[in-house]
Amino acid sequence: HVQLVESGGGSVKDGESLTLSCAITGATNSGYCMVWFRQADGREREGVAALDSGGATTYAESVKGRFTMSSDDAKNTVYLQINSLKSDDTAVYFCSDFNNWGPGTQVTVS
């Protein structure tokens, strides 16, 4: 049974940085495609970053250059580094392998 748990969110000021973590238990993240999504109040959930089984990353146009997704297979964890945060980044951030979802972690930028 795969479980995903996000952490690292918080309240930050415009221009600051955060690194979100997604701990994966019950399976190894090797060979999985992992995705970070976010959902702001009143808006649809959107994918912002993906890491495929070969280690390649793709990003939504709106976050390119500011978001970096990575993984540590030894820790079964994927990360999302977010730089130059702005108010539009305020949302709950989720990680997923398309079959399983974590509860999310709130990022608030003011």
Structure notes:
The chain has a 6-stranded mixed sheet, with no helix packed on it. A 4-stranded antiparallel sheet has the order 1-3-8-7, with no helix packed on it. It starts with a strand and ends with a strand. Helices cover 0% and strands 49% of the residues. The model has no long low-confidence stretch (mean pLDDT 94). By secondary structure, the chain is mainly β. It contains no helices and 10 strands. It has strands at residues 3-7, 10-12, 18-25, 34-39, 46-51, 57-59, 67-72, 77-82, 91-96, 105-109.
Q: What shape does the CA trace take?
A: globular
Mean pLDDT rating:
94
DSSP summary: helix tally:
0
Strand arrangement, largest sheet?
Answer: 2-10-9-4-5-6
Nearest-angstrom radius of gyration?
13 Å
What profile does the largest beta sheet have? 6 strands, mixed
Work out the number of β strands.
Answer: 10
Question: Unreliable runs, pLDDT <50, ≥5 residues?
Answer: none
* Strand-residue proportion: over 45%
Helix/strand order: EEEEEEEEEE
* Span of the ends, CA to CA: 37 Å
Structural class from helices and strands?
A: mainly beta
**Helix fraction bin:** under 10%
